[in-house]
Prior knowledge:
Elements: H1 10-19, E1 29-39, H2 54-65, E2 68-72, E3 78-83, E4 86-90, E5 96-99, H3 106-125, E6 129-132, H4 151-160, H5 167-174, E7 177-182, H6 187-199, H7 201-207, E8 213-214, E9 217-218, H8 224-231, H9 234-237, H10 250-258, E10 264-267, E11 270-273, H11 279-285, E12 287-289, E13 292-294, H12 298-305, E14 312-314, E15 318-324, H13 328-331, H14 333-341, H15 345-352, H16 360-373, H17 385-406, H18 418-427, H19 431-439, H20 447-454
Antiparallel strand pairs: 1-5, 1-6, 1-7, 2-3, 3-4, 4-5, 7-15, 8-9, 10-11, 12-13, 14-15
Helix pairs in contact: 1-10, 2-3, 5-8, 6-15, 7-16, 7-17, 14-17
Amino acid sequence: MEGKIIIRSKLDILKYYYDSAVPRKDLLIGIEVERSGVFEENLQPVQYNGAKGYLSILKKLIREVGWKTIDEDSNGNIFALRRGKSYLHTEMDGRFELASKPRKHLANLNREFTMYEKEINEISKSSGIRWVSTGYQPFSDNSEILWSPKKRGYFLRKLLFPNKKGRSESWLKKTNSVHVNFGYTSEEDAITKFQTTYLVAPILGAMYACSPLSCNRFSGYMGNRLRICQEFSPERNAVRKEFFADNFSFEKWIDYTLNLPVLYITRNKKDIPIVNTTFLEFITNGYIHNGRKIRPQIKDYLLHLKSIWTEVRMKGYLELRTIDCVPPSLLLTIPTLIRGITLNKESMKAVSSLTKNWSFEQYCQVRDDVNKYALQAEIPGGKKILTLAKELLEITSESIKMHQKEHRSKTDASRFLWPIKEYIFVKEQSPAEHIMEMWNGEWHKDPRKLIEWSEQ
């Protein structure tokens, strides 16, 4: 019932953020992983409908391995499943996003995704489907990928950018990322984590860039997904100078979100479009629908946050959205790295110092260069961002080891970083740079070689 609390002023939203803080011992971490499916026989994109479409796989997951439907329309279209506290959502074309159960221990997070990976691969095999773990669906043109009947996709297309195609359509149909969700203990802790992860977002983007190909050709960008995400709808997406200010707070984040237009809300399982109204105006005046005044609820604000795509987003937890989808072997390195970055004030201070002396303009320039060159992008001072990636891994590895030692843990969680260390310290490449080297070399531009690599 918490979501139905009426919002009478900004203070009600502020209370929601304060109430979401948890004791340090209860801090959890989770991941969300998006991937696209293609048919092995002809590399055509999997569609939502059809005998071998995404919907058919969802139904098999329900029948065979215990997932439950939580979002289904009157026509039998399924858009979300749940099993325990894990969720499987569908994106605008029907591709899947696994949202893990938030967990205390990284090993349990790894176990969950490994189990899901085995299930989804086994069930998909009978339909001849392979899953591409890259940040951008590399084989298909937008016109080859059909929209699913998901209502949120309709609202995004019709209300947010009704006359735009191209990159906006690519963003909704072809981009795949890994989101990391992590909690906070107080407002101070939340803001420190928000600013720290934002400060190192260009380093993370370079380390995990994995989206160089578009329609079987080099797109010109190692991080093509992030470039597309950053370039459309800048008012909802672009990094803002105020995010790095010393006086940044919950209230200032809320002010930013309230001044953006609302897209839609839901009442009694029905979607209601909200036209030409910011969330602040919604709070102040309500909204007239069919002759009745609707007042905003907390659940409306949380839905509103889903239409804000900053690289770090504050909900009742923090959500890092910078990183491309990567092969399974690299997946657990991502929450491990974020855990190491945010373990305590000392580790966050050490990490944030890597880029804290950059001007805002320099930060934005590096951010753009990373999308194009990944780890080979130059940073202020003339070095490559590869040098900062190595320093970041050293800081986080030591942070994790010290934490394990202090808590007398028998498990060294820093071992989960080994796969990304091989890329950074041995190959000195991001996944995208490795893809392009192999694509133009040993793979002879064979898409199936890319698929095999992305499944490792």
